[in-house]
Amino acid sequence: GKRVDYSGRSVIVTGPELKLNQCGLPKKMALVLFEPFIIRRLKELGFVHTVRGARKMIEKQSPEVWDILEEVTKGHPVLLNRAPTLHRLSIQAFEPVLIEGDAIRVHPLVCTAYNADFDGDQMAVHVPLSLEAVMEAKTLMMATHNIFSPSSGKPILTPSQDIVLGSYFLTLDPPVKPVEGKRLPMIVDADELDSAVADGALKVHDWINFINPDYQNESTVFGRADKKVIRTTVGRVIFNTIWPDELGFVNFPVPKGKLGDLILQTYNTVGRVRTVTTLDRLKDTGFKVATLAGVSIGIDDMIIPPSKPAIVKAARKRIDEVEGQYKKGIITEGERYNKIIDIWTGTTDDIAKAVFEELKSNGGKDTVNPVYLMMDSGARGNKQQVRQLCGTRGLMAKPSGEIIERPILSSFREGLSVLEYFISTHGARKGLADTALKTADAGYLTRKLCDVAMDCIIEQFDDGNRDGIWKYAIYEGDDEIVSLYDRIVGRCSSNDIMNPLNPDEFIVKNGELISEEAARKIEDVGIERVKILSALTTRKKVGITALEYGINPAYAAMVERGASVGIIAAQSIGEPGTQLTMRTFHIGGIASGVLKNPEIKIRTGGKVVYKGLRIVQTVDGANIVLNKTGSVQILDQEDREIEIYKIVVGSVLTRADGEQIEKGEILAMWDPHNIPILSEKAGRIGFTDMIPGVTVKRELDESTGRIATVVIEHKEDLNPAVNILDASGKMIATYAIPTGAQVAVNEDDEIAPGTMLAKTPRQASKTQDITGGLPRIAELFEGRRPKDAAEMAKIDGIVSLDGTVRGKKKLLVTDPETGDEEAHLIPHGKHLVVQVGDLVHKGQNLTEGGADPHEILEILGPSAVQDYLIAEIQKVYRLQGVEINDKHIEVIISQMLKKIRITDPGDSDFFWGEQVDRFEFMSANDHISEAGGMPAEGEPVLLGITKASLETESFISAASFQETTRVLTDASTLGKVDMLKGFKENVIMGHLIPAGTGLPAYRNLRIDTLGAEMQQLTPQEAAERIEGVVLPTPEYNSEATEGAVPDADAVEEGTVTTETPDEEVG
User: Fold this and answer.
1) N or C: where does the chain have the smaller number of CB atoms within 10 Å of the terminal CB?
2) Considering the entire predicted model, what is its pTM?
3) Order of strands across the sheet with 821-827?
């Protein structure tokens, strides 16, 4: 960015008296910023005749100048920008209101978008000069147009802090319940209520009977049409005066989240203009009530639960038991550590529960506890912070991420001991260091994303392409984290979606937008997955079509032609990146991460069917699962699959194959601390390659006096294994024991089926620190191979081991039908997650480790790697509670899969191993096929975003990104020509960018005078005769019409003027 004229900067302060479209501008700043306008007006009015005279007059600050300043600033918006400008909403337009003083005043509701607060932040002011710039600022950039966040489509003008507190204070359930049989005062309308409150006859939290304004009105959203009188509180009646009548009477507590829903509902019900006025009313009422409520916190409000000492005592008793088990040698050091951490985590949760119960009842008083009020409303503080204030700080992590065994049992109210204080400094310092370092990383990531997706704009409305990708709900364990509704609403369907309960009924036709209604219906009728159009399956060389993108989340309307969706995607992914970086800072290094439930509960009942499970029955009749790759299906009456559950190795199943199970019953349970290796058969134990000091170490546990056998890292071609022998001594089964496992049987033991032969402790829990955060996102977008990638099966088949090659285990996967064989060399010390004889599927992990996206692409193809990347990226953001629409990630990933590597040039001009553009490859092959030649063959390549940016056709864009010298020398050697098609090249050259209002189709509109024969044509035909006119598709004729539309009245005059809709003036 360059410094520009007519700009200034100053500190910001809050301006609660402003309307949403206003900002307070200090008069001194305005005088300088609007100088040329003032000079022109002074000359027009005849006060001065020369510019120099006008300047003198302005310097003297004579009274006429102030009047003229008021005049020229009226209706002339200014742009406010707060650095760092991470997304579109960091620059918005406001009408200036001239104020005394030196600070800019900002409307409180736009702070979320700017990420601003009033502790000394500064903002820059810019003045749009030309008429076009002023029009564009007014029609596109006004704060009143930016209600929704471009990344998720949720309202970004949701109030926070005081306003939330005020709204919640009005609507909360009063702690004093109405007395049965006592008559409540009857109130007719809000005006009567106001006078009663003013007289002191009623208080905000008094119960009243209120004449229902929604009686017999079925059209409201929240109202009850069946009751003449409703029981409510005084506060709720006041709260309802804010909202439009169409919403109905809101008769429930409204914390921050519900407030967001109300705003969204208001927008959907009464439209943008009335939503904005409602928001201003909400702001005024919220601040006023928060002030009058006088909520404040004292040390006594942080109530310590009386049950805390007992909970801690019980935990200490359990810990003594664990220590005892360890000393007797029943459990290993790792298990002891894990169990202790679990006990303390559970204890912390129990204390937290006690804290919230205590605060909710405010220690048995009939008033609301202010600490609880602030937390519950979402105004300030979260459960973790309140737990630390009143309950206990809990477990802390070392800088390395390991959890310190000794928790901090004190709360902040009780005060920390010196040791406790010292332990907690780790987390605090780490948080501060992280914040400083990672802000830069987030900025760099945004820059790389912008560069790769820059040229992705909406090229046309529809090109007839109906390829798509499947979307389904996302589950984690039993909980649905993202519903199907959220994943498909606002996208376009790639095929006809029929109602399975009524096969003739279309829910959505192919290529049609999936509205909220349709999405809800799809969920209701039980459709599990939906195929939608996506940027990932586009057929366009540059950009994508509007149908492939769907709704623009920022405007809740179909995306328009020329919208720069690539930049929007980059900003939507990069902007929360800074939050990812800062998040440890908020948790303050507390060990979070609750142990996953070691059981499977059924969501819907049905018949249990085992799929690919190896089962053994123990002596007491329990079914134990022996392999990792199996699953259990639940079928309905017609034997259709309703659900499928992955089963953990070592699980005990509660139902046999073919039995029925009811909803909510437990299907499987397992040990959360160990991964067992179990015997399938009965027999005698024999050992192979168990050599003390080489492959195993016999540890004498000094505290217990017992000897434990643990497999250690070993280099030679040795494969420690436990064998099962029959009576004649013949080997009937063998189990390879991985490094780090503890052998649980002795040689010559006689065992029953299902006996545990060895156990590997599950990984000790580390805090899920930022490494999940930003570095993980960068790793995924750069397509890096993980450090210890897992080996993947390349074909379906049966697993077998075949000796060792060069010190590595040789594992074979053999397809029983075709006899195909794939060999994998696996280094020692790598855990195999499959066993000999298991059936594995293509793309399944054979060893532990992270998945390598390049392998997934090679083995399973592009759609699998797209799914993997979207899921993994979303996982990181979801962990931080950040919501991003899938379509943004799809846009970026589509840019990463643009290239194809030639494996066989055929009759084409390509070289072997050359990387070419997917579309060049396809068109070249089409030509060759038409001519009857041999088409080229190639495989898709996954490029990281840095690589992909450097591979762009424009050398100006690539040079301004990275490796400038190399890019420019290459370009000059090859004599490249830059056609100035993209954004960056044009910005560098000082041209308009080819998107939005600068789209060539809009720039080249012209008015033609038509001859007599044109007068007889319909407007539709007339428009088709004019070049450069884009007609809207009739079905989608929304307010923001696509392209320009001929003016019907003008046809009779003999000229057709083509108007551009006001959204796209410029």
Assistant:
1) N
2) 0.76
3) 821-827, 808-814, 797-805, 839-840
